[in-house]
Amino acid sequence: MALEHAILVSLMEQPGSGYELARRFDRSIGRFWTATHQQIYRVLRRMEADGWIAVELIAQDGRPDKKVYSAAEPGRRALSAWLREPVEPETVRHELAVKIRAAAFDDPAALVSEVERHREQHAALLARYLAGERRDFPDPAALDAREQLQHVVLRGGIEYERMTLAWLDDVLATLHRLANRPSNPGTS
């Protein structure tokens, strides 16, 4: 997926300025696709040049005009074509998992603080997702089709974080168990 597609999805949901779009990325789209504000602005300029988005200038008192972006017909067609392309399962590169395997050749206790740090970050992300769910989807039965699709993506993120926390708890328990063995065969 190119950043252009994520931006088009966001603009289809609601037109906005580059600043508003960047904030939306931070708040929602960033759950599954990250981009810096600089990347977003750079891609917006390219999408405007390619005719994928339309720009409306809004005059502001005492400030530069505000650019409000929306998806143009060529962008809508590009998004429609992209939606129909097959998606290959993602390859996972998980450095922490490799380090956990490497602990068999060193001191398993050496990884405990790093795994705990990862656990704290995933717990914080889960808390953010759950707060967002309460804020944005307080009544799931009343959601329209677009909101249902947004919610199902968020629920996927919630379940992923729950699964990751359960795995990290398992890793920590294993590391503690191995670290407390009288003789660790992986160390010399």
TrEMBL record:
Protein name, UniProt field: PadR family transcriptional regulator
Organism of provenance: Kitasatospora camelliae
Every Transcription regulator PadR C-terminal domain range: 92-175
InterPro entries: Tscrpt_reg_PadR_C (IPR018309), Tscrpt_reg_PadR_N (IPR005149), WH-like_DNA-bd_sf (IPR036388), WH_DNA-bd_sf (IPR036390)
Pfam family, one: PadR
Domain of life of the source: Bacteria
Domain spans labelled Transcription regulator PadR N-terminal: 7-80
